[in-house]
Amino acid sequence: MEDDGFDGRVFDSVWEVAQRRVYDRAVATTELLDETLRAFGAIRRQDQELYAGNRLLNDDRQILPRLSRATSLGLAIYLGNRRVACWSVLDAGEAQPVGGYADALVVETVLRRRETFRGVIDRDGRPTVLAVRPLYARDASDEYGPLGMLEAYQDQDTFRELIAGSLRGSMLGDSLSAAAGQADRMQGIVHFIDDVARRLQLLALNGNIIAAQAGDHGRAFRVVCRELSSLADQAKETVAEVRQLVDAVRTPAEADVPGSDDVE
User: CATH number of the domain at 40-155, please?
Assistant: First the structure.
């Protein structure tokens, strides 16, 4: 996508909004994953295996795929700094290999300083947006520190190309006609972000059901569900912002369409 001209300006505007939402969605997803695991029981380590209650998390093929498909993000679980489970979807980039190790900056932030990491890490030459939080046996007050980490990720180039693909289109003659064509392509972005909002609302709804079933133990989970609902509302606001861009582009183009004026 070129930086100058109409395409570059539109892309930069959309990308700035969409990237903020990726970070917010990734952080909220790690919180949801944490609460989902705790619903199975206490987090514990046994030799080189990680458990939630009696459920083995190494090489998980049930929890991570469900949340990954719902959020369109890649997800990973770490025991210490070693990855023990990972799942991804096409739009999030390739799944990272089980048995691999976290980046040194992530380890320093999450395991040593006990903070949530939020940033971009280079993975095999590809910038990847990450949100990584500590995984404790009980809570953040645990004197022994985190047992591992929970990660949500999005391949940045893949996401940029997804947005760019929605903006690309054949040039349709003069610049105003081309602008109208690009505005039509931007509707794809509206549908994409709107779909994210619906998925977040579905996650919040399902989470509230689980929280209600858990009784007092589900109170913390309900906090996460409220955050997901808030992110869904933000995504809807993003849709409104993009629609304004579409209208701003389409209006002058439509005004110049032959035959649009009254016939004398």
Answer: 3.30.450.20
